[in-house]
Amino acid sequence: MRIFVKYSKKGMLRFLGHLDTQRLFMRALRRSRLPLKYSEGFSPKPEISFAYPLSVGIETEGDYFEFSTAVDVDTEAISSVLHLNVPDGIGISAVGRVADGTDKIMNLPKASRYTICAGQAFSDWMSGRFMPSGSYMIKRIKKGKETLSDIRPFVRSVEIDGENCTILIEHTSGGSLSPMVLLGAAEEDLDQVFPEKAVTRTDIYTIIDGALCPIEDIFIF
Amino acid sequence: MIDLRKLEKILPLVEKPGRYIGNELGIVKKDTDLPIRFLYAFPDVYEVGMSNLGHIILYHLTNEREDTYAERVYCPFRDMQEQMKKEGIPLYSLETYTEIDRFDMIGFNLSYEMCYTTFLKMLELGNIPIRSSDRDGTPLIVAGGTCAFNPEPLADFVDIFIVGEGEEVNDELLDLYRIHKEKGFSKQEFLKEAAHIEGIYVPSLTEVEYNPDGTVRNIKGEGLPVRKRIMEDMDHSYFPDTLVMPNIEIVHDRIVLEIFRGCTRGCRFCQAGYVYRPVREKSIDTLLEQAHKLVDTTGYDEITLSSLSSGDYSRINELCDRFIDEFSGTRVYASLPSLRVDSFKEEYAKKMQNVRKTGFTFAPEAGTQRLRNVINKDFTEEQILTGVRYAFESGASTLKLYFMIGLPTETDEDLIGMVELVKKIQGIYFSMPREERTGKLKINVSASTFVPKPFTPFQWVRQATHDEIVHKQQVLRDAFRGLKGVSFAYFDSPLSYLETVFARGDRRLCKVLEYALENGAQFDSWQEYFNREYYDDAFKRAGIDPDFYVFREMSTGEILPWDHISCGVTKEYMIREYEKSLREETTDDCRNGCHGCGFQKVCARL
User: Fold this and answer.
1) What does the DSSP 8-state code read for residue B202?
2) Prediction ipTM score
3) Residue B128 reports pLDDT greater than 80
4) Which domains does chain B have, with CATH numbers?
5) Which residues of chain B lie closer than 8 angstroms to A33, CB-CB?
6) How far is A211 from chain B (nearest CA, A)?
7) Does the distance separating the beta carbons of B23 and A11 come in below 8 Å?
8) What's residue B355's pLDDT?
């Protein structure tokens, strides 16, 4: 049975990298003593994969991973046992099955929504400078080479509420954009360092019937 | 509590921020206004420290006390130290982000001489004066671990040493502290009373006098001699229900379960083999119960059954069988390292293969029978070759072989003997039918430099000089050249040299450590940070010739700087063993007959 889990990671644990986060959930699953399905091969491991990596330092309220059990298990039972086996700072928001034939979880993400709180200057820059421009070129280092790339197309929409900036960033076959890079671009353009910046991923989106919606919407409870 | 906003600002700027955030599963949460706040400190980075199960067990044990909250701290790496300095963040505990100078006691685990400057660095990072005499009240600086057997090089820094196993002493010390704290704490009065608890050494209450030739004339003071503490019943000693689970990958990222303490073999270079006597086993039932508990609560899928010489566990076959039975089908793997080559029987080889295929490591230590007799590593070449054959037949093609160079009485002949032995091992592999060989032969030979350690029969012996070591390495390099499938690794000797200085040193070296710290020394066991010059300058400034501690054959008649500490094995026994080594005589495993090392009464009880 394929199980999808939606989780949050907040506070100090936001400084845990993607690999460490994966290992943390792998161990939590083992501790939970669920009837996990293992990979074939010489050293079998539980089959667990994650929707989309998150940069170190960003909190999340809506990240996802999937794993499989060898037999059917009640999803509510999974939720409560997982909850006991993760450290403070990790929350299990939802556990659900998915329909047969659902694509692998890493192929689902099409966009992520982030809340960035970096002060009025950043909000003003987003609405006044970044969004109105047709393209926004920055220098990025890819495979050790410095290239110019346009980051504007990744940002699909912005909502501004005072100092809170909610943005929707697309994940395309050509890559994606970390909100940290966007913040860096603003800092460079404005020639100032935002002293306080809090970034939270609020959800990861996929496309169902042509419409963007949180991955959670495909869960079957 | 430190300013968390400042911490959050610097964490994105450092490598592996997961080291510094705490919040692991399994940490103990308590009120911070309990009567006693204790801090377990490990003078290395998080990944190394968290791999040491000993302090985690003690952490949980101390937290069983209702009046005490025990927390943990490790040494931040240099990049983090720089950022902390820039932001004015002092060293803090991982549980509650409390500045370390706010604790009542800090207990350091010292297991290796080359962590001494890191220990001092941690005090400095916590704004705690490094010298005991510059600290009036709390925190009290406590230290335990293998290095407490010769505590003298740290005598000016540490308030209280705990010699031996800490489970009971820690409690007694905290009980006493509680009484003193309630009646109004005076450090002097507290230390005077503490010095009379068995296993506790308070260096500030002792005095050392020296002879004109630099040797020790006299050691006297409160609470001497200090006798090490041991737990006699391993089945009833404390074991926690769960462990703190690291959030990042650590060095030994698995369950390490100690199957017995001590060793009956008596290899004459091995400090652990003497200071952890007598042998005390955990029963198979206890081990299985602890293993199940830890597998359930940690989620680890690998258990290492650890000891100084696992094949010497009295019911090793039954232990292997029962572990394999209990965990078959659960995807939990058990491994059994530290097998002596002569205890490496076909059965284990086969069983290990069932469990998980790994490379094998053997430690012949010396290349000829003569030299193995000197060091009392008394297995024969035939036993080594038989063990190796089993390993190859069980499907291994990678072998690690550990040797030492610079051993007492060693000649070039012994070195060539090492190469001959490796050739014979290679021959065994190639004599096997091609279809039975798996993979490609890889023999990794490593030769470390012998370090004479206190509380061994070789404590009086000098270390080989730099020139001698370079010559020995050259001989071996030449002789190993062109051997198919064999790689030879050897190590630079400055670290072994300093290890000997501080292993055999006295309290005059405190100044050296202080100067070395000032010069920038820390993380000395990390090759990329070790700088010989920090120490060269420190010795010069302190007016101390380090060769005195390293290249001098000590006399069995002189007072050794650690003679006021007792590990339970008598000095007479050590002298006897030393003299036997010079006659190339071996001492049999003491399970085959007692040799009277000093533990007769305890062993009779066990």
Assistant:
1) -
2) 0.89
3) yes
4) 4-227 (3.40.50.280)
5) 296
6) 35
7) yes
8) 43
Contact B12 A27 (CB under 8 A): no
How far, in Å, CA of B100 to CA of B123, rounded? 8
Give the pLDDT confidence score for residue A105 in this predicted structure: 96
A-chain residues within 8 Å CB-CB of B18?
15-17, 20
State both tokens at B445: 């030979």
- Record the tokens describing residue B433, joined without a space: 């039918």
CA distance B333 to chain A (A): 11
Is B555 buried (19+), middle (13-18) or exposed (0-12) by CB count in 10 A?
Answer: exposed
B297 touches chain A (CB under 8 A): yes
pLDDT in tens, B259-301: 999 999 999 999 999 999 999 999 999 999 999 999 888 888 8
d(CA B260, CA B11) in angstroms, rounded, equals 41
- Residue for token pair 């994606």: A176
Sign of CA dihedral B167, B168, B173, B176: positive
Sequence-distant (≥ 6) Cβ neighbours of residue B224 within 8 angstroms: B206, B564
pLDDT average, residue stretch B99-116: 97
User: What is the identity of the amino acid at A28?
Assistant: A
% of chain A exceeding 70 in pLDDT: 100
pLDDT over threshold 90, residue B203: yes
Question: What is the rounded end-to-end Cα distance, in angstroms, of chain A?
Answer: 13
CA nearest neighbour of B146 among B515, B453, B518, B470:
B453
Distance, in angstroms, between B300 CA and closest chain A CA?
7
**CA atoms of B210 and B98, how far apart (whole Å):** 42
Q: Give chain A's count of helices (H) and strands (E).
A: 4, 11
> pLDDT-based confidence at B354, cuts 50/70/90?
very low
Residues of A in contact with B298 (CB under 8 A): 27, 31
Query: Which of A56, A86, A87 lies nearest to residue B17, judging by beta carbons?
Result: A56
* Mean pLDDT of the region B477-485: 92
Inter-chain CB proximity A15 and B22 less than 8 Å = no
Collect all residues from A whose CB is shorter than 8 A from any CB in B.
Answer: 11-13, 15-17, 19-20, 23-24, 26-31, 33, 38, 43-44, 56-57, 85-89, 196
| Alpha-carbon B444 to chain mean position | 23
3-state secondary structure of B217: strand
Helical segments of chain A, H only:
18-31, 75-84, 120-125, 179-190
Contact present, B507 and B156 (Cβ < 8 Å): yes
A56 and B247 within 8 Å at the Cβ level: the answer is no
pLDDT at B15: 94
Query: Which residue, chain included where needed, has tokens 């009485």?
Result: B409
Closest to A218 measured CA to CA, from A67, A48, A94: A94
| Residue in A214, A189, A188, A221 with CA at minimum distance from that of residue A74 | A221
Say if residue B580 is exposed, middle or buried (CB neighbours under 10 Å; 0-12, 13-18, 19+): middle
What angle, rounded to 10 degrees, do the helices at B316-327 and B284-298 form? Answer: 30
Using alpha carbons, select from B468, B476, B263, B268 the residue that is nearest to residue B367: B476
Among the listed ranges A19-28, A60-69, B334-343, B437-446, which one has the minimum average pLDDT value? B334-343
Calpha distance B153→B149 (Å, rounded): 11
Within B250-315, residue ranges assigned H as helices are: 271-275, 284-298
Which of A8, A12, A181 is the best substitution to test chain B (most B C-beta atoms within 10 A)?
A: A12
Tell me what pLDDT residue B351 has.
61
Residues of B with Cβ-Cβ distance to A44 under 8 angstroms:
331
Cα–Cα distance between A183 and A186 in angstroms, integer? 5
